[in-house]
Each structure stands twice: as structure tokens, then as C-alpha cells.
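Async update (no meeting this week)

Hi team, since we skipped the sync, here's where things stand on the single-chain job. The sequence we agreed to prioritize is pasted below, unchanged from the tracker. I ran it this morning and attached the output directly underneath so nobody has to dig for it. Comments welcome in thread, and please keep replies under the output.
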Amino acid sequence: MPATATGGERQTVEAFLDYLRWAVAGKARGLTEDQARRRLVGSETTLAGVLHHLMLVERNWFQRIVSGRSAAELGLPLDTADDTWAVPDGATLASLTAGYEQECARSREAAARFDLDHAFEHENAGRLSLRWILLHMMEETARHTGHADILREQTDGRTGDQE
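Output:
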């Protein structure tokens, strides 16, 4: 559970998002490379893929939308959402986890420059506040943490968020 129980809105939202970031990264800890890449559901979803996908989602929202960098500059595969699930050849579980954690740190830095009401332009959704982006990232990360929960339980029976 997030350490912040009595903070203000921003502190609480950021604490919950950071908790979810920590929890999803923890789902892959202790697995072998094969276990992290094993497909256990009908889709292409794997634990390694969850980390890669969320890293690119963080990069898209906080580096592209919030920081105004181009998708090409950031190496974002924006042709289809499925492109974000393909784990690059040569990526290891350690490099995926480190990459995700580094991207989350960059996201925190980008968000810290603006107040919650600051609005950013999104090519499809129009103007979106930082508040909306943070809450969207909480929803996105929570959804995929749930996927990771199921995949980890199917892999070795481990449940919960304790490391």
C-alpha cells in the first residue's frame, strides 16, 4: 500500500501510481528469462511484454505528450498498440525492469515541472490536464498489474505484492 495516507491530491495520486509501478516491476522479479517470456494466455501478453509495454506507455505520455518530444526521437512504435508488446531481441528481464524503472523516474521528473491543472495537447483526445494523465497512467498500470498478477500466479503460484 502506498505510504501516503493523509497527503494532498497530488501526493496521493503520485504515491498510488508509484506503488503500482513498484508492484508491476515486482511481478517479474525472481523469474527466469524463459518464465518471463512464456505465453500463458491466448494473446501475446507475457510478463516481459507487460514491462516493455508499460515502459513505452510511460515514454509516450510523459516524454512525448508532457515533454513535447517526437515519437520518432523517442523510438516509439506508434503504428499499432500491439507493437508495444513485442519484446526486443536481446532484451533481458534485468534490462526490461531497469528500463521500466528508469522510464518511470523520467516520468516523475517530467510531471514535476507542471501543476495538476496544466493542459497538454493530444492529437486525438484534445487538451488533457496533467491530473488526467496521471490518473490515466494509474488506470493503465493497475490494469496491467492485474494481468501480471495472473501471469505470475500461473508461472509459479506466487500471489500478492510482497517481494
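Quick observations from my side:
The CA atoms of residues 20 and 142 lie 6 Å apart.
The domain at 9-156 is CATH 1.20.120.450 (Four Helix Bundle (Hemerythrin (Met), subunit A)).
Reply here if anything looks off.
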